[in-house]
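Course assignment 3, question 2. Fill in each field.
Student: A.L.
Task: Predict the tertiary structure for the chain below.
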Amino acid sequence: MASKYFGPIKWLGGIAIIAFAIALIFPVIGNALFSEALRRAVLINAVPFFAAFVGVLLLFILVIVLVAMRYNGKIPSRTYQSVEYVIMGGILFGVFCLFQPFSFVPYRYGFLLLLISTLSFILWSHVVGGNRKLDAALPPLSAKANIAGLIAGGLVIVVLMAAIISVNAPKPPYGVRERTYNSYSDERKAEVAVAATQEFNTVELPFMLIFNLFPAAVVFFVVREAFADRRETVLAAVPAVG
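Answer field:
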């Protein structure tokens, strides 16, 4: 079974490793072989970046190939379509965040959401969902499966929110230039701290809660399906696609 994954890993992964090696080694070799004027040339400076880009691209393609080989035809439509809708919602919400005129906070995170959602959609679109035979073989989702999914999704939100609070909680100089902040009186510093904390609690945290609903929803659907009741003998008879 594992042998079918060896070919993609060998070729795509091997070429990616070579590309990363070129990105790391080329600057050292260039300093030794090329003159200073040649080292400043655009094409010479572009080689490490291009090699690293190719390496990342090949690794992403490798992930797509391996996921497709492993899960083609094995994901029930109820989960496949739900995850697909969440990813599409992330794309639309990311675009909205980038172009909305109301606050700078969504704009800061909108591109990240759009990027992750777009890459996820590319990956997910290469996976073939389950067929009617697979869907018919599955019993309805149980309360246990839904509870497990809710717990997992809730844990994702808690962990992500805790990480965001620890990293992005307002700290001196609260977005003001440090020299300017140090010139403030104690009263003015207190006012700046209160304003920054209030904006963080009333704007950034609610937005990040909405932001984190997207990965939490994906985890909910995946874990729910993992805990769903199955008729293993019937599922084993359903042929995988690809």
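Instructor remarks: The two ends are 14 Å apart (CA to CA). Residues 1-71 form one domain.
Grade: pending
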